[in-house]
Every structure is written in structure tokens, then in C-alpha cells.
Specification:
This protein is of the alpha+beta class. It contains 2 helices and 4 strands. The chain has a 4-stranded antiparallel β-sheet, with helices on one face.
Length: about 70
């Protein structure tokens, strides 16, 4: 089974500080958009996704869309 991949679309850019925290907690993280409104996290479990969503909400980021795919 392929590892899950999660795409989170945010309103506005991800703050640099929050992105640094996310990158220290997760191994495979990317932001393909120049404004950082899409966050892609790969090969994490559901508890980690929940922690990520909570971090984003607690730091004032608005999650507009959440998509799970397999790589």
C-alpha cells in the first residue's frame, strides 16, 4: 500500500515560523505555491495530521481544503 499524501489549502501564506515548526516535525513537507497556500505532507499517520491541523488553527491559519491521496 502506498503511503498517504495530504494536501492542505490555506487562506493566505503560511507564516515562516509555523512552516519551520512543521518542517522540524515532519520529514516530507513541501509548499509548491509561491505564496505558500498549499501545504503537502507525505507519509504521516492520522494523529500527525490532526496535530498539524491543530497547529495551523491555533496559529490563526484558515484551512480551506483538505485532500488525501496516495503517492
Amino acid at each position: 500500500m502506498a503511503p498517504p499524501r495530504y494536501e492542505l489549502t490555506l487562506r493566505g501564506p503560511i507564516s515562516r515560523t509555523v512552516l519551520d515548526v512543521i518542517r522540524t516535525r515532519f520529514d516530507h513537507v513541501s509548499t509548491p505555491g509561491a505564496d505558500g497556500t498549499v501545504l503537502i505532507v507525505e507519509d504521516v499517520d492520522q494523529a500527525s495530521v490532526r496535530a498539524l491541523m491543530t497547529l495551523l488553527w491555533d496559529t490563526g491559519h484558515h484551512v480551506l481544503a483538505f485532500k488525501e491521496t496516495t503517492v
